[in-house]
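Hey,

Quick one before I head out. I ran the complex with 3-isopropylmalic acid overnight. Inputs first:
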Amino acid sequence: TKHFKVAVLPGDGIGPEVMAEALKVLDAVERRYDVRFERTPANVGGAAIDLEGKALPETTVAICQAADAILFGSVGGPKWESLPPNEQPERAALLPLRKTFDLFCNLRPAIIFPALTGASSLKQEIIEGGFDLLVVRELTGGIYFAEPKGIEGEGPARTGFDTMKYSEAEVERISHVAFAAARKRNKKLCSIDKANVLSTSVVWREVVERIGKEYPDVELSHMYVDNAAMQLVRWPKQFDVMLCGNMFGDIISDEAAMLTGSLGMLPSASLSEGTFGMYEPSGGSAPDIAGKGIANPIAQILSASMMLRYSFAMIDAADAIDAAVEKVLNDGYRTADIYQGHPGEKKVDTVTIGDAIVAAI
Amino acid sequence: TKHFKVAVLPGDGIGPEVMAEALKVLDAVERRYDVRFERTPANVGGAAIDLEGKALPETTVAICQAADAILFGSVGGPKWESLPPNEQPERAALLPLRKTFDLFCNLRPAIIFPALTGASSLKQEIIEGGFDLLVVRELTGGIYFAEPKGIEGEGPARTGFDTMKYSEAEVERISHVAFAAARKRNKKLCSIDKANVLSTSVVWREVVERIGKEYPDVELSHMYVDNAAMQLVRWPKQFDVMLCGNMFGDIISDEAAMLTGSLGMLPSASLSEGTFGMYEPSGGSAPDIAGKGIANPIAQILSASMMLRYSFAMIDAADAIDAAVEKVLNDGYRTADIYQGHPGEKKVDTVTIGDAIVAAI
Ligand SMILES: CC(C)[C@H](C(=O)O)[C@@H](O)C(=O)O
Ligand SMILES: CC(C)[C@H](C(=O)O)[C@@H](O)C(=O)O
């Protein structure tokens, strides 16, 4: 029997509700495969601020350190919105988690499930047949972490400043992940930068170009970030894998995710160099629908699937979860966020769609 | 007779063709209003590299310095794509022009013309009745200009770095422009930042908040840039004026422009503190259709209209140009980029639509 330790951080808003469904799915995997997931819950985000005085308590970090992977829900909500921006639950939980566990590689798939093309903001003719792109975002470098940053001076000269930085080594390691991912997909990598203005991007582009020589089967292109923001809207199918630095990836991956119209469907993985990783839905804590039992648990369930795939090398089990989600969608199950009233659709609550996915595994 | 000096910089690709139509429109304005536009042409971009060895020759700068405003076409094309990114025509022409003339304020309207909703990538139900938002982008500060920037170190530690900076004074002056613009529109201003991570954004948000007190009739909100990239796709009508720093404005304004589906329709203005400004289409030089006489000149013509409005205080004449463009669209005139084959549409070339606009003034 394989044995994995999972730190379970449900967080705020819909986090606990959708996490419950993902844990049911892990139960189902235990029944079907020879594996045990030892789960240890821990507080994070607003819930942790309320209970332990900070968004990422030491006890939570220790539980994560003892685990093989982190399954993360979502954090934040109106209750904590009056805190200064840099103390808000999302930022105060996520940034230190990423740094502590060197989660340098963020994988954010943006997929339109063929059953759900109607949910996208885009016209039918643009998304006909769906699209499937993967944003690979560097997650522990760039302007979100580099020093120096701060505020100095007085009066009108008082100036806020930040530093953007990337070393060759940092770009190399994220490039390898992106090229390897492209190799397993449609063999196209588009690297996003602003090399016509930023020195950081000049190094970024040189290194991506150099690493690309080791992956001659992958077609490499470069695109300025402003153009990428346009091209995503115009014709998202032109992209397979998009490789971005931390800040550009933040913006581009959110834009791509929203284009699918199914934010509640999209998982994400934040990986370190070994097998350790953190897995969380791309969407937020959706405080407006929290506690109503109507949230879409699929992003959380697919995050658990990514955990099996990337941290536990349980490819079959991950494929089984993904297939179960697809089957349940094809069977017409829809939570409110993806219900469109088409014939054959059944509007169901969080637990019902979770049960259906469990039954399909 | 009023007298204004205009530096005319057609540039590359479709630049000269669409500029010719804008100049015809200025002729029409001269015929109808008591004004003379003294126009001096100058080389810029790839054309200037070829003829004078650099994208922004001193002679061109001198001509601009002697003028009351710059009417700019577009620059760049495949011929110069093998140049290093920072020597490419667009970057090498635009950044020094902005700095030399202190063009700190970039106004980029993103409008869906009711006659053209079909051209947008967005679903009909999202853009029903069109939308009309204005991005106000700070254009001479932030990470595109601040020092230090460069590359240092060797081997894997070789690091590219840039500095992002905003002083209170810089944020104040762009905020005033944005609030004043909102006051004349729908009285809503959304300021875009990343104040949960960037110190620059902390100062940005504080100053915008403070200046906002002087405009109590304008409803102010703040949004993180990643969320803004999503919200634009989800529901662009929620925005009236979006205020952004240089880099966020670069990305957000391009995304917003592409959402309209009518890049060839959108003008822009880059203003200094006095009445001097530079006016140019939001789209690029479209080398694929250059020389064919089929480019859409409307963005260039509306840029001329913005010049009359902002640099020459000729509001009536600007309104007349805008109304003429609207009439010609309502009459069914369409260049290829906006032709959709609907009943009543006439597919016409650059000169024909230009003539129709001139006739309507
Ligand atoms: C909360 C914030 C710091 C974070 C980021 O920008 O990295 C979030 O937006 C994300 O993308 O995970
Ligand atoms: C060419 C480039 C430097 C420029 C910018 O990013 O400012 C362009 O993209 C623009 O938006 O006008």
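The pocket of 3-isopropylmalic acid (ligand 1) is lined by residues A 90-91, 94-95, 250; B 196-197, 226 (CB under 6 Å).

Talk tomorrow,
K.
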